[in-house]
Every structure is written in C-alpha cells, then in structure tokens.
Amino acid sequence: MVSVRNAPRLTRRYTPFFNVLFCFILVALVLGGLSTLWPWNSETPKREFVLQSEEFAPVATVLSTDALAKSTKSSCTFYNCFDVYRCGQHGSSLTVYIYPILRYVDENGLPVMNALSKEFMEILEAIQESKFYVTNPDKACILVPALDLLNQNNLHLKETSQILAGLPYWNSGINHLLFNMLPGNVPNYNPCLEVERDNAIVAGAGLSTWTYRRTYDISIPLFSPLSQDFQHETIEINESPRKWLIVSPQINIHSEYREELEELKEEHPELLVLDECIPAKPDNATERCHDGETYFYPSILKNSTFCLVLQGARLAQATLSDAMMYGCIPVVAIDGYVLPFSEVLDWKRVAVRLREDHLHDLIHILKSISEHRILEMRKQAHFIWTQYFSSIQKITLTTLQIINDRVFPHFARTYEEWNDPPWKEGTTPPLNLPVIVPKSQGFTAVILTYDRVESLFKVIRRVVQAPSIAKVLVVWNNQQKHPPPATSWPKINKPLKVVQTKENKLSNRFYPYDEIETEAVLAIDDDIVMLTADELEFAYEVWREFPDRIVGFPSRVHLWDNNTGKWKYESEWTNEISMVLTGAAFYHKYYSYLYTTSLPGDIKTWVDSRMNCEDIAMNFLVANITGKAPIKVTPRKKFKCPECTNVEMLSADVIHMAERSECINKFAQVYGKMPLKTVEFRADPVLYKDNFPEKLKRFNNIGSL
Amino acid sequence: MKAKKRYFLVLISCAFLILCYFGKYYLWTNGKREAKGFSYTKHKLQSYLSTKEVYGGKDSTVSPRSRRKEKVKTTDTVKCNMARCFDFSRCIDDFKVYVYPVEDSISPAYQKILSIIQESRYYTDDPSQACLFVLSLDTLDRDHLSPDYVKNIHLKLHQRAKYWNNGRNHVLFNLYSGTWPDYIEDLGFDVGQAILAKASTSVSKFRQYFDVSIPLFPKHHPKKGGERGTLTSNNFPVNKKYTLVFKGKRYVHGIGSETRNSLHHIHNNKDIILVTTCRHGKSWKQLKDERCETDNIGFDRSLVWPNLVYCIQSLAQKRGNKMVSGMKSLSYKDRLKSLNLFSLDKRRVRRNRIEVFKIVKVPDIIRSINKTRVHALRQHTRIMWDNYFSSIEKIVMTTLEIIRDRISAQTARSYVIWNSHPGALLSLPQFSDILRDFPFYWRHLAASISPNFTAIIYATMPIMSSSSPLARLIKNVAKSSFASRILVLWNGETAPPIANKLPQVSVPVNIIQPPQKTISSRFHPHPLVQTDAVLNLDEDAVLTTEEVDFAFKVWQSYPERIVGYPARSHYWEDSKSCWGYTSKWTNEYSMILTGAAFYHRYYNYLYTFYLHNLLHKTVDQSQNCEDILMNFLVSHVTNLPPIKVTQRKQYKETIATDGKTYPTPWNDPDHFVQRQICMNTFVDTFAYMPLVRSSLRLDPVLFKDPVSNLRKRYRKLEQEGWK
Question: Does the model's ipTM exceed the 0.90 cut?
C-alpha cells in the first residue's frame, strides 16, 4: 500500500529531474554541434606564435611548385612601400606580430630550413617580451616571419622565398620585417640578403650604400658572440695611454690590405698587425700572431687606442662591435658600408672613418686627433656598444624603436636621447634664441600681496612710471579678505588685473597666469616702494640683453661653511653674488612654467609648507638649467625700512637666516649638486658715476637711497 | 531536502561536463604554453654562425684595389657615393672651387651663386688646384617651359666643360626640374658623377652621402646678409592666433594634387587655415572643379605668416619656396637633420580615401605635441634660418661645407655644431676637433672655461727705460694671478728689443714677430696662445692689475663676447645716409677697442682665416680699423653687443715719460674720417650692420657703494688714474 502510494509519487517527483537532465543533454549536444563550427575548434587549429624550437612545431609542406615571392624591390622607400595605415591603432606605438613557428619540409618530408638558431630565438623572445608585441595579426603594424634568415649560408634561397610568399598575411611582403646578419654568399658576397622578398623590410648587417634603401631598411650590427662573455669590470675607460696606437686584429683581411699595413708598420712601430698563427688553428679564434709572438683576441683590443676595421668577404665585421666593447675607437675603412643604426646614431662621435684609398695616411690622420677627443670617442664607443649592441635583445629593440620613430615622427626620440650618455652634465638651455628681446613687448609686473593695501598701492603707482611696463597683475593671496573694491585702486594708464588665489601659497607668485602676455615678468613684493622708474627701466633693459637669467636688485650669496660642513646664506655686503631675490627681479615667463610644473623633488611642497625660500628655489631652478649666475643691477639699496630695526627684528632675522641656510642645503641635496654660480660684478648704466652731466645720462635716478 | 541535494549534484556535474567540453581548447593551449620550457632550451641551440664565419670569411678572390679602381659605368651613376664617384686626390692639400668662365647669359640667381663662390675664400682661378668645379652653364631652372631654360645643354656641356670627366668633382646647382603636371626629377641631361645640389629631391632619387639637398629659394632671395628671422619674441606658451596654415596653389590634377585637394577637410577657419587657389598657368579654368571659385575667394583674403605656429609642407613642385618664407616667420616645424636634409612629408598617395583619413589626423597630431617642444622647435627654426637659409650666400656656403665635411671626414663638424647657434659656417673644424675649444659650447658640455689668459702686447716703439709704458704694462699684467704668458708682438721698424731689456716678471714673456708686419697681425693666431682667453693690448695701454683681474672675471662669464674698457658707438647718419662712428661718451656703445680687451682665442682664428680678403685689404691699406673689424666679426657671430667693464679714469697717456709727444692717432681728425669709411666698407661687405648696442656696464658688486673700502675687493678701481 505504501509502495503503491509511493510509486506514483516517486515518478511524479523524479519527472522534472529527468526533464531537466534531458534539457541539459539537449543543450549540450546543440552547443557541442555548434562548437565544431567555431573557428578555434576547426580541423586545422589556428596556429599562434609560441616560442618553441621547431622540432615540436607543426609541420608545413613547401611544394616545389609553390610560387616564389616577387623579386626584391630596390626602389622601396618608407613613403611608397610601407603601409602606415596598419599602424597607429595602438595609440602612438608600433605593434608587432610574430608568425607561428613551423617546421617546413619539402614533398619528401625533408626539412628546407636549418634549425632555428639561438640568436634568432632571442630576437623572437625580445619581440615577444617587448611593449610592441601583439597576438592579433590584424592589429599589427609590423609582421615578423618566424624564419631564421640570419645566416645566408644556411638558406635555400628558392624555398625560403616560397615560404615567404605562402605566409597567410604576406600581401606582397608589405610591412614584413626580416632579420639578417650574414648576407650574400660565395663568390660575390652580395651586401644584402639574396632571398627574393618583394616589399619586405630588411634589418640587415653589412648593407652597402646601394643595397641599403634609405628610410626603409635598417642597418644593424653584426652580433658578436663575444659580447655574451664580456665583463664590465675588466676594462677601464680613462685617459691613460694604451700600449698600441692602433691594432689591426682581423685575420680575414685581403692580402693587399695586409701588405699595405705591413709596409706602414715598418715606419710606424705603434701599429700592430695581427695574423693567423702558424700552424693555423682554424677553430681557435682567440690566438692571433705577429712576428712569432702570440696575442689573445679580444683582450688585445684593451691595449690599443684605435682598432682598424677592414672588410673581409662581407662588409660587416664583428671586430667593430668587439672594439667598441673594449673602448677601442674603431677606425672603419670600408668604403660604402652603412654603419649600424646610422639613421639615429652619430658615428662621428664614435668612430673614425677612412677611405680605403687613404689607408697609407692612417697614422698621420690618427695622430692629428686631440687627446681630449680620443677620450670622448672612447667613452662614446663603449656607451653606444652597451646601449645598442651588447645583446641580441638590444639590437632587436633598437631596430623596432627606429621603425617606431619613422611611423610616429612627432614622438620620435631626439638626437640627444639616442646619443647622449646619461652622465652628460651639460645643459641645453630652453631659452636659446640669439637675440636681444625687442623693447616693444614691455613687461608685466606681478605683485604678490596679502593685506598691505596701502603699500601695495604705492608700489603700483611706482612701477607704472617705468615706460616699458605693459600690465600690472596683482596676486591676491588672502582668502579671508576680499581685495578692495575696484574704485579704490589707484588710477593708472596701464591695464591692472587682480587674481585671487584659492590658497595662501608662496608658489602662487610664480604661477604662469594667462594674464601675463609678455615674456618679461617683474616679480615685486608689495613693500618694495623704493625703486625708481629709471632703475626699473634700466633693469628691464639689462634683462633684454640677458633674457635667460634672473635680473634684479637685492642680491645674496651662498657660502661654504668649513666649520659646519654646510652651505650658508649670506646677506651682508659682499663682493660676490649668486642669487637675486625675487622680491624685485625680472625673469622670463618660461621659468614660471618650469617652477610650477617641474621643480625637482619635494622643493615645491617644502617651500609652500614653510612659507619661505621660494626665491631661493627659483634661483636654483634657473642656475641649474642655464649654468649661469643671475645679474644684479644698480648699487645696493636699503630694501627693508631702516627705522624698524630693533632687537625683536634682529632675533627674527637670525631665525630667518638660519631657515634660509637650511633651504639652500635642502635644495642642494635635492639637486645632488650646488647649481648656483657666483660672480663678482653687477650691471650699471654705462655712464653711472662718470664725470658727465647728469642731464645727458639716460638713467640718472639710479642708486639714490 | 535530499532531492534538492541531488538536483544540485546533477546540475553541478552537468556544468562540469560542459565546462570540460568547452574548456578543452583553452586547457590544451594553456598546457602548450607551460610546455614552452620543455620545447625551448636556449643553451642547447646552435649559434647562427660558427667561429669561422665570424672571424673568417676571407675575401681572397677580388682585389680591393681593382674593385675600387673599377670604373663606374654611366648607367650606374645612381649608385654613386663619395668613395666611388669622387676624386679625393684633388682635395688633399686644400679645398678650392673653380668656376668655369661665363660665356652665355645666365639667370640673375645663378649669377649670384657664381659670384658668391668667386668671392669666397674657397675660390681658385686655377683649375689644376681645384677640388670642386662649378659650371658656368645655368642649371638652376630645368623646366623646359621656363625662360631661363638652357637648350642643348648636353652639347654645350661637352664643348665647354673641359674638365667634365663624366661629372667627376663637379657640383650642379638646381632649383627646378621637370614641368607640370608630373615634375619629374630629371634634369634633362646626364649629370653623370656630378654632385647634385638640388632643391626638391625625393628620397628615391637622392644619392645618399653624395648629393646635397638645398632649400628652394625665390628669385628675390638676398645674395648676402639676409634678413634675420622675424621671431624675436620668445613667449611661452606659444600663443598665436593660428595653429596651422597653408596657403598655396592647388593643381586640380597632377602630382601632389590629392594631398592639396584634401586640405579643406581640416580647414576650420578658426585656428586652422588652409587656403588654396586653382589659379595656375593659363588653362586652369578648363580643369577647375566645383570648389575652385570659393577657394579662390578664401585665398585672396590673405593672412600673414607671423601669426601661426605650424605651416604645412606637402608635395608640390615649389615646396621649398613655402618653406623659406615659413621659416623666416619662424613657424615651420620640421625635422631638420644635421646634414641639411629635409624630411618633408612626401608620402605618396595611393588612394585618395586613405589620404583623407590621414589628413584629418593632422590637427590631433599637431595638438599632441607639448608646449615645451613647440617652444623649442620654434627657436630652432629661427636658428636654422639664420645659420643656413637667410641668404643665397648661406645656402651656397652650406652646400660647400657639407661636401667639405665629407671629404675630410675625421674633422667633420658634429651634430651639435650644425644644429646650434652660430652654426657650422662659423665654427671652423680646422681650429679644433673638440667642442670645448670653441667659445659657444662649453655650457652645453658643462666644461669649464680655462682659468688663465695670455696677454698679447702689440709693440712698435723701442723700450727706452724700465719705466716706459710697455715695461710698466708688462709688470702690471704679470702681477695678475690669472696671467699665464705675455707675448710681445713686435711690429716696429727696428729690430725687436732683446729679452733682457724687458722687466723680469714671474710669468714667461716671449717676443714674437708676426709673419707679415700688418696691423692685422695682432690678431694672428699664435701657437704660444694656449689659453681660451686672450688679452689684447696696445703698448701704451695703462691698466692696473685690478682692472685686468676684474675684466677677466667678467669675461669668464661671457667668453663668447669681447670684454674690455674703452667703448665706441655707431649711429646712422640720416643726412649722409651712411653709418657714423663716434668716440663720444654716450649712453650706449656697440664696440670695445681691442687696444685693451679680452676675447676668446677662436676669434683670432676666425679673423685671420674666415674673413673676406676685401676686409683684410681695407684694414691693411688704411693701417687702421682692425679693432672695428674685430667687433664686427664677433657681433656677426654672436648677434650680441660687446661688454664694457668699469675702468679708472684716464686710460690713454698721450705724453710719454720722457716728455716727448708722440703722434698718436687719437688726436688726428683724419683718423675718425678713415674709421667711418672703414665702417661703411665693412657694412657693405657683410651686407648688413652686425653691430648691436648695449647700455650697460659691468662694475664690481660694491662699486662706489657707501661701505668701507676695506670690504671692497676692487677698491683701486674707484681711484683716479695717473694723469
């Protein structure tokens, strides 16, 4: 009874379960069926790039009837063969796709390509790990076939071309990049990869001026296997003279060169010409001989100032890279050789180029090079090697960066970014127009004020007397109080603007307000009422001649205190100046912008939190980028009211001076050096204090107390 | 409860099954990624080349000598580079240029080019001395529709150019080639191995390291001097009315027309103004399209160059023209490479549609460049304009200097020299191979300027006693702690004084005799001058040690300028419409007399080897004005005035100690007339007035301040000198 009653209940209870199960199976089947139609589940699985050696890679058959790529276009330039419209989808950066690695075999199943070399793997690895790498060929600007073309000796030219033509996105080779290190073959050694490759770009070593397609190909260095074992501590690049003036370390040079060099050597014992040892040891690359003496390559390069690089069968020689590695200045005597990365690197700073015809003049030319230049070149050679030649990864990334610069010229790296070593100390001044600023522009007086309205008005009335003033800008730094109503301001015949700041910060005085329309800014405190129109006008005149400096009135100097081992701020009457206070000074508006945007470290917050030293910070900033001292104009004046001197003020002064000294030490520490420059002169009008009628002097109201 | 659990279990298992099914692919590929480590082991792989291949690979078949001697075939001249197509043996000793004698009438522009070369220091009239040859046949305009087109040039070439030799060592100047609508870059005759100095060369036709790309200049371009760029305001941020401007012809079809036809897509009539006109030649009306009428109206409402930030360069026959005018107003933004090769955007248009797409990106690209870079580029265009573009002389000389740099590659000027003020034309590499020896770059290098100076005293009067002015001067200069050597340059009629007649001082004193006894010899570079600073002195200069010290300190801050004591001024005399010279005390000055002045020794080199012969002749003939010329030279280089430092009252002594009055030029009225004539000759030769005025004098910080004299370092400066 129970069971009878239970059975239908059970069925009833389980029916929905089976329904659900059935539905699931149905859905699964339908989806399963559909899924077979998805591309990623098709019969031929989509091959994506995986860094693996080709023995594990899928096989692709090259038929002898397959079409070859069209012949190489020698007239290609960036402008007619490169498709820039593939680029730029990734912002302003190149995108590079790598084809999957495949094992190519012919109809008989025999491989048509040699095994991928270690260096080629490193190229692929470098690309894959770079910021340029993308997995989607449709989004790629540059496509790199995973075909090892580094050494033409290992290539079957026809089959390689067939493989290229058969690549799925080949499109007559447009935007395809091929890497090659050893081009050509016996007997001609063509200075370019001889695989027919249609539009493809070559990053090749040993290109000559007529195989290198300017703006299109990239000349890369021949990677020297010795680079991997180089230890930086083994060489020192300094002024000390090396044993040999020049060494010719190559064993593969033509006998004609060798004869010529031997002849030179007779006259000049500072030349060392190395050759193979006898008996020859073909597998031993390190032993080289001269006159029965054995020298070891490459360490011999350490002992020579210059290293001669001549062509062997091919133009590119590993000796070039080896020499640079050891700080030996390469003397490249290979006519028509396009030096590696010469599109961006300045080889004049690295190597001496010599025509082969002038080989006999070698010693004479080298001896005419000054010692200082030798040191510069030696350092530069080693720097360029470290930066761009020392590993396959660096060579690859440099190649891609060059293409990137071509595609996005407005974001291209500058000459300085490519060539200047990081230890370069000099300044490239941001203001370098070789002109005296025209007078017509005039200057803008920027007055920082808090609440001293009366004195402010006095200053305004004073400054507008200077004929060249164009505008007065009052920076109202008081948030508690509003500026006085428009009617109460002094009536002046020049535009007057008031900007109200949101916060009482000292940095507000240096903000590059849009209201400042002139180049020249006169920063003036609201209590500097003692400057005459002549003095202001003269200072403006001086600034016009030195627009990259701070030109102003009260000056200070920094001194090194031997007792405390610290810098000290000095405001006494001294014979030197290194700072001009911005309580009354002219400077270029550009420095306002720099002060606001690019003060190093935490200087800006330091200044704002202490409500002090903004003028010292400005002096540091300008001195640091120009390497020049400020200019003080006209004799010293009493700038603070003389009658308010009392004991309290004096003690406040002592604290003030201590704070200022602290600022100098802080800033010097942030800059990592002391950028301020000290000078012993100031600027006065030509006829100042000269025995000459005052009336005829253009600026006569100067220096009165 | 139990049932719910079962449902749940079944659901989970079903989900798992489905997950397995779909996730198969992902798991498979992930698995493969993990397998990367197995399938790729670096150290097991072979290197791409064997040791033998790196250091072996001997070329034993072809003799390099015969390979180099191999004649370049006529059809092969596209492969020319300097090593193949240039005869260096002609240029070993010197770099001289020969110009063929002119037989036909030639265009004024070409005439200017030839006369510039003939007037330059590189000119020779002896073809056997010449390194370069310049044709007298006008090759500037090779548009066969042009009136200046020379017909049958090929024949004439073979008749007249005796040293042609398939163009070896010849330089051909060309501005226009081909004609509308294609403007092919062919000159209409075989240029052979001649170096082409051509405006509008394309990357594909340009023979790299061989040809020279020059700017296209208009017919009225000044021969010499040339206007300075109009960018004098260096405001930041650059706030001009227009951001991007193009104004030019739009050929409705033909080369470059696609680009120009699409310009109107980004014209917004606010900050981007791109106006074109269809008017060109005679037949433009037949070919005009629907936009021509409105375009022409917009074009005629002209706008001015100075108010813009960028201007566009696009492919067109006369693109150089635009560039020259654009650069003058300092707005042209382009990549100017060291060798003066301009990378213009000559992207050939494949499909119009795509070009439109590209052109609409231009405003974005331009606005994406940050303010500081725009500011820097603007300054750079002005410097480039001033250095290399502003006159035909500069363009021609730049061309010659580029070729010269290629010939002597080891003294080629660096990128920094080419790309900064004052540029390669004024930085002679024969002076030094390092930048810090020049007065312009030491800040760029953070090098320090040398802490000593060498004094050169120009002497003609025999030394009578140990208290003679010369002896006193030597003593005073030698007392300066910065003096490293004193040279007495003996220019007198008599034999030079014997060394022991000179006072015994702590620094070496040498008596030297110039190679030629001219007044300019005081600026002759002497190997004994090894410091950066030179103090040039007249023998009768009266200077105290303090004055010397202070002036030297000032000079260290301004090594590119002349720093000295007595100043002179120039002014424009309206009534005579010529320049006037004055020694009166004025509020301004523009020259410092080199009878007592510090300057960089490089200027001695420039004075002697750079200046035009005509200038030297003027000085030698008048036996005067050498100091004015030096001031012209330095201001020409720097664009800046000299610097006057303070001096004690009394500078010149007219009465020597022995009571006799020597005739000095200073009390001779003819002297001033002569100097005025000199100055006007110089202005003519420089083709402009390089002098700049200044109204400031540099004094010691505490000069004449009301403070104890004991505090002052240069207290004697405030005292009166001897009468």
Answer: no
